[in-house]
Design goal:
This protein folds into three domains: 105 residues, no CATH class; 82 residues, no CATH class; 99 residues, no CATH class. The protein is 22% helix and 30% strand. The strands form five sheets. The protein has a four-stranded antiparallel beta sheet with strand order 7-6-5-9, covered by helices on one side. It has a three-stranded antiparallel beta sheet with strand order 1-13-3, with no helix packed on it. Helix 2 crosses helix 5.
Length: 306
């Protein structure tokens, strides 16, 4: 998470000219920023995502992060490119998981010993190197369905969790198929695009926005979307792209918390001459209270999903 404002911008808002509270203000901005993002259920700083989303059967698909500022690839189908399995005679259970960051190999030996190996795709960037990393683990095997897949990026693999990979059962690896054309229709939703010139009139009547029956197929984690979303956050030199109303709330909540340090138990000690202060281990109580008091204003920026 990143700070949603700077000390200089907050001090300008709060009318603070001295430097005595600079350390405290910096700490509070960090805590307030983290609490606001947690409540909003969004990542506000501009970030690139490779996500597998649930298709709903609609030609419209809502993305979990916004505002979307770039779309690099959307694929509505995927293909099995290989499989992983454990063939050790000393293993009684084995499974494979992939969370977008690590391919995890989990096994339980016949002696009851658990072993988990996490293989980061940041290290094994393509499937050929990931295959090598898998087979470097005793008892584990990886087969690619074609040599053409060796140079495919490992980071695009479809997530799997606890897939059985033992006793003649294979954990399949899936990659997204070729990109499908889409357009951005709102700051958080995309729509499939079809070329009307090549669609029969009975399939794509002129009154419809997309072909009959042609939408993002219903399924779980079956749509791949690679996109960038979020705001450029404020710096001392630039206000960034975050909505002014949200930036104001960041300042207001920070001010609420700063003011509360003089009134509640989060402040451990304070002296006036040659100003000094000492915070307790956490200011979470004051931050949570300030967020609670501003929920109505924050809700317009909050993700409605879980």
């Amino acid at each position: 998470m990143s700070d949603l404002t700077t000390s200089a911008r907050f001090k300008t808002y709060a009318g603070i000219t001295g430097t005595a509270q600079d350390t405290l203000i910096g700490q509070l901005i960090t805590e307030v920023s983290a609490a606001i993002e947690q409540y909003l259920r969004r990542t506000l700083v501009s970030t690139t995502y490779k996500s597998w989303l649930d298709g709903t059967g609609s030609p419209l698909l809502r993305l979990k992060q916004w505002p979307v500022t770039a779309i690099y690839q959307v694929s509505i189908s995927s293909s099995s490119v290989g499989y992983v399995y454990n063939s050790s005679s000393t293993v009684s259970r084995a499974s494979v998981s992939f969370d977008g960051t690590n391919l995890s190999l989990a096994e339980m030996s016949t002696a009851g010993v658990q072993t988990i190996s996490d293989l980061p795709v940041a290290t094994s960037k393509v499937l050929s190197t990931l295959k090598t990393a898998i087979e470097a683990k005793s008892g584990w095997n990886c087969t690619l369905n074609s040599s053409e897949y060796e140079g495919e990026p490992s980071s695009l693999l479809r997530p799997i969790y606890g897939q059985d990979a033992f006793d003649s059962v294979y954990a399949d690896l899936y990659l997204p198929d070729d990109p499908d054309p889409v357009k951005l229709v709102t700051e958080d939703a995309i729509e499939l695009v079809y070329d009307r010139a090549f669609m029969p009139q009975d399939v794509f009547p002129s009154t419809l926005r997309s072909p009959l029956g042609c939408g993002f197929p219903t399924g779980t984690a079956n749509i791949f979307a690679w996109f960038k979303a979020g705001y450029t956050l404020p710096t001392d030199d630039s206000v960034g792209t975050m909505p002014g109303g949200l930036l104001l709330l960041v300042h207001q909540i920070t001010q609420d918390v700063l003011s509360s340090t003089k009134l509640n138990s989060n402040l451990q000690s304070e002296s006036i001459g040659g100003y000094s202060y000492s915070l307790r281990a956490t200011a979470d109580g004051a931050v949570a209270s300030a967020i609670e008091n501003r929920k109505r204003e924050l809700n317009q920026y909050r993700s409605v999903g879980l």
